Amino acid sequence: MFEALPEPKADAILGLMAAFRADTRTDKLDLGVGVYKDSAGKTPVMRAIKNAEKKLLETQDTKSYVAPIGSAAFCNAIIAQVFGSDADTSCIRAAQSVGGSGALRVLADLLKQGRPDADIWLSDPSWPNHVPLMQAAGYALHTYPYYDAQTGSVNIEGMLESLGKAKRGDIVLLHGCCHNPTGADLSMDDWARVVKLLKDNDLFPFIDLAYQGFGDGLEQDAAAVRYMASELPELVVAASCSKNLGLYRERVGAAILMAKTEAEATRALGRLGGVIRSNYSMPPDHGANTTEIVLSDAALNADWKEELETMRLRMVSLRQAFSEALRKRSNSERFDYIAEQKGMFSRLPLNTAQLDKLRDDHGIYIVGDGRINVAGLPESGMEQLADAICTVLAE
Ligand code: LMR
């Protein structure tokens, strides 16, 4: 049996995380895995989550099963967060999922049942785990150009040209906001062009929304999803609570679908429940239950939004400070794009040898494609970091 198994494929992000943990240097710097960090370099449990957990501990009177699709109250709260509290949600349904990745996978399985011949189109680049997640659901994958490294913005013409070649019925995976790994987002004018193409060519939108609240704000970051929902007949969204509620290890998310009719939505949700039941039966409860308390209690909700906004603004100011330090050190504007981009990530133009050198000589850990976690940037060490980067770039 096991002797027949080939060596496992390394995961670029998780591999880097393990290497960082194993490094005994005290002045090392982790710009790798996408977790928020405060100015002390910690990933704290958010205040509202702590308080909701206390409440949960006091009030929860059973650990009995919930259901394959999880808690209806949790799902409705996430639907309202994504589509807006006054949206018409009659054709929208959601299932609680095992993080955003769990939502991606069960939605991929569901869409496979609906359109077995569809292929999936991913942005180039995309979050590396999109590839095995979608392949595991049985899809053939294609990529569309996305990032213009010269300008640090979206290559919208290349994207539209490439997606124009997708066959009718294919699925297009889109990052709803805060593109991972580039931080380059579509403008609303770009979204209008993409949506027109999806509509004209009968392409199906599969939206990964992992960073709502980390870009321009909780409501603003949902603008693209809401626009698509107003223009297109159907879509799915994989929403994550890992980042905006800091619930990474609790695995909380929602697999959301919008169908053409209420009856189709209800049937699709039933099928989604079947997908979940045949995978892991039911989602874990603790993180979703805690989220439900935060989202339904006015005081906790306000406190959560305040803390989330503080986190977002910290990342915005780190972007500005880093881009400024690079501007000074390189005496050029070539890194100004970092201040313009959104969310948790940006990419630096570093090759493998340069990344290895940064890690070996300076203890700076950056993902192999040059992606940095903006939240990991050192508030009081920007000059040294800019100096190390510009030094390896010049060698
Ligand atoms: C990331 O992109 O770093 C995060 O989404 C963590 C992960 O699972 O890769």
Which secondary structure elements does this structure contain, and how are they paired or packed?
Layout: H1 12-22, E1 29-30, H2 47-59, H3 72-83, E2 92-97, H4 99-114, E3 120-124, H5 130-136, E4 141-145, E5 147-148, E6 153-154, H6 156-163, E7 171-175, H7 188-200, E8 204-209, H8 223-231, E9 235-240, E10 253-258, H9 262-279, H10 286-296, H11 298-330, H12 337-340, E11 345-347, H13 352-362, E12 364-365, E13 371-373, H14 382-394
Parallel strand pairs: 1-12, 3-4, 3-7, 7-8, 8-9
Antiparallel strand pairs: 2-10, 5-6, 9-10, 11-13
Helix pairs in contact: 2-10, 2-11, 4-5, 4-9, 7-8, 10-11, 11-14, 13-14
The structure holds (2S)-2-hydroxybutanedioic acid (LMR).
Q: Which structural class fits the helix and strand makeup?
A: alpha/beta
Q: In percent, how helical is the residue content?
A: 40-55%
Mean of residue pLDDT? Answer: 97
Order of helices and strands: HEHHEHEHEEEHEHEHEEHHHHEHEEH
Question: Structurally, how many domains make up the residues?
Answer: 2
CATH superfamily of the largest domain: Type I PLP-dependent aspartate aminotransferase-like (Major domain)
So what's the CATH class of the largest domain? Alpha Beta
Rg on CA atoms, Å: 21 Å
Sheet-strand content, in percent, reads 5-15%
Strand order of the largest sheet: 2-10-9-8-7-3-4
Enzyme class: transferase
GO molecular function: identical protein binding; L-aspartate:2-oxoglutarate aminotransferase activity; L-tyrosine-2-oxoglutarate transaminase activity; pyridoxal phosphate binding
Keywords: Aminotransferase, Pyridoxal phosphate, Transferase
Organism: Granulosicoccus antarcticus IMCC3135
